[in-house]
Amino acid sequence: MARAVWTNLLSDDSIRRSSQTLSAVAGNAYLYGGELRPREPVDSAVYRITLDNKQPSDTKISTTTSTSESPQPRVGSASTTIDGKVYIFSGRGGTAMAPIEEAGSFWVFDPSTSTWLQVKPADPQSPYPAGRSYHALASNGKDTIFLHAGCPEKGRLCDLWAFDISTRQWRELAPAPGPERGGTSVAYAEGKLFRMNGFDGKTEQGGALDVYDPENNTWSTITYSTDGVSGPGARSVSCLLSLKIAGKPSLVTMFGERDPSSLGHQGAGKMLSDVWIFDIKTGKWTEVQADGENAPEGRGWFDADVITNASEDSIVVHGGLAESNNRLGDVWRLDF
């Protein structure tokens, strides 16, 4: 087992929610959207959580209220960051809780000015991905955002799109291996996009780390055992993050829902609390053994991001849905 340490940074009722987005930028985490009660989006505020503190007790929350231009409240959105800005795409909202259709636009939050800007495709006649929820976003850190899968008005998707932020153009890429799914996870690392997990409407997916090669527009698959010993079990609404651990390019997946609730979106299934590291070079999974007095309880429908530090990357985790069907308002840091 690999070793890591959990630190509880804070717990606050004002940020209790699930199906939200969380993005780390320059020592702060930016929280947006989600729900406290099923199918009722919370406010449009952005919550800034300080992360570059010496002591957990120093962690603070501040809010940015809606500006003249800001996205409507939504759940099941997805976010990624490029050049210090937070990009979010679609989600569900309104009285019908339908997918929010914004004709391929992103909402972009600039932490330096605490303002939103809607970035629309340059050519409104060109194809763009349909509105959806419980999809996944990742960026190459330079100029491209990848959008994958999720739940449109009916059914699920396995499509893959790329958005060039300089030209503001969408390109539809080779679709990922089936089945179609929501609640999947993607991460960009070492010039490739990695995808795993998700829910196809009947069962949680696992045992396959699918790898997209942008240069060749092709997918390949790394299979692994889901026995919980040599590889993580199948799950959905978890996360996949790209970071360096002990200098090695790695992926981390954690938590998630293993067995869906019979109540669907109204209830909670079996929630996992494990953490796994994938060494990209060796292709091996290792479960993390966490040191410390306490650790986060199992959860799904949460969000997490990488805190980039000069010495060693770490991970911030916020909120989600516990197995008790309670929404959580805690923030944790995981150091390797």
TrEMBL record:
Top-level taxon of the source organism: Eukaryota
Stretches the record annotates as Disordered: 56-79
Keywords assigned: Iron, Repeat
GO biological process assignments: glucosinolate metabolic process
Low complexity: bias regions: 58-70
Keyword flag Iron: yes
Protein name in UniProt: Kelch repeat protein
InterPro entries: Gal_Oxase/kelch_b-propeller, Kelch-typ_b-propeller
